[in-house]
Structure formats: C-alpha cells, structure tokens
Amino acid sequence: MIPCVFTTGSDTALLRASCDVCDVPIMEYRASWTTYVDVKLRAGIRYLESVIYRSHSLMMWLDGNDSIVVRHALEIAKRWKEFGGGIVISAEARCWPDAELAEKYPPAKAPRFLNAGGFIGKAADLLKAMREVEKLADWDDQLAWTQWYLQDPKRLTIDHDRRIFSCVGDGPEALNADTCVLHWNGKAAGREAFWDGFVKGFNDARKAKTIQ
Question: pTM value?
C-alpha cells in the first residue's frame, strides 16, 4: 500500500520535488485562501470526496508550503502499519493555538501535543474524521482537530516518537530525528538549505551505488 500525499499551497515546489525523489505520488488541489478551516478542512473534504474511489487507499495530508518528504513511500507505509493501521497525526512540543487545553491531554512523552500539518491513514478513515472535525471548526483547523481528539483520544495516534512526522520548529532534535516527513511549521528557517543538502546526499548515494 503506497501512501499518496494530498495538499494545497502556494509554494509547493520543494514538497513536489521531495515526493518525486521518494516515489510518493502527490495530488495538489487548488483553493483560494480564506481561512485555514476553509482551505485545509472544507476544501480538503471536497477534494477527498472527488478522488477517494479512484485514488490510493492510503493518504497523507501535508502542509504544502513547508513540508519535505525524506523517506521512500514503502518506508512510510511500513511505519504507518507499525502504528496499527489507524490515523496517525504529527506531534509538536507546544499546545497551539489554545495552551489551556494542554492539561486535558493524556499523559505522554514529549512532543506531547498534536499538530495538524501532517496526518496519514486510509482515505475513507481520513474523510470520516475530517467531516467530524469540520463540525467543530470555527477559525482554526488545528484547534478543531485538538477538540475532536480530546473527545476520545483513542480515535487518533499522536506520533510522539516522530516515526513519520517531525515538526522542525521544536528544535535540533526534531530536525535530526529518524523520521519520514519534516515540517517547517511556523515557517521555521532552513528549509531550502536542508533540501540542497538532502538532494546532494541522495545524488551522491545514487552515484556510489551505480559505481559499485
């Protein structure tokens, strides 16, 4: 089962390039910017509804403007299966946008709180979850995901170990994690420089393999 990224954004060049390198199919949908809820939830739901019966059954949402895929599609699928096959969502160190909700989270290792910039699961499961989350949404999609999760924490698995997703804004540990997707959430600096180094390393490894 190969994951397929669905995303929107105005500056997705690095994400598209990284998906190409890592053999991850990517499907971009267009949505005029209004609010995070309109673009990422409402427009995302409509897009999933239009492709769910003819697309990959394993789908991964990534923020298009500030995410880079760094592991092959098969490795992403393998790690997702190790979580048990449900919905897995990214983790971050701060409880945003409502810090007062932090005390309502179940005890867990850091990074403890969910980040809505990356999640993965079967397409039908994601569509069902996004429809339920949208009903709770007012002005912020991450707040709505948090509220939905806190109603029943068993409905989501937060990727505390950064096995699939890592939020670079958490610091050097997040950037150096053994992960599959790096998310420069909050437009943390260094995305372009990292990509240049990643591509060079990839090309050097490919050349070495060819020589051998």
Answer: 0.93
